[in-house]
Design a protein that fits this description.
Layout: E1 3-5, E2 11-13, H1 24-50, H2 55-61
Antiparallel strand pairs: 1-2
């Protein structure tokens, strides 16, 4: 698993891809953990860049 895509077409790549190996429940939990970790990091990066960027450009660059 290398990332996620929403129903609206927004997508992002995981910072640490997950191999679907072994017990399904185990690797699906790893996917869930990586999804949360990646989104938290992306939010931190977005907040850090908020004051530096043009507002419209910033909105277009961030996943929503």
């Amino acid at each position: 698993m290398v990332g996620m895509t929403s129903d609206e077409g927004e997508n992002y790549d995981f910072f640490n891809p997950i191999k679907p190996e072994g017990n399904v429940e185990d690797w699906m939990n790893k996917v869930d953990e990586e999804m949360k970790s990646t989104l938290q990091t992306l939010c931190k990066i977005a907040v850090f860049n908020y004051a530096k960027a043009d507002r419209i450009e910033w909105i277009r660059e961030q996943i929503g």
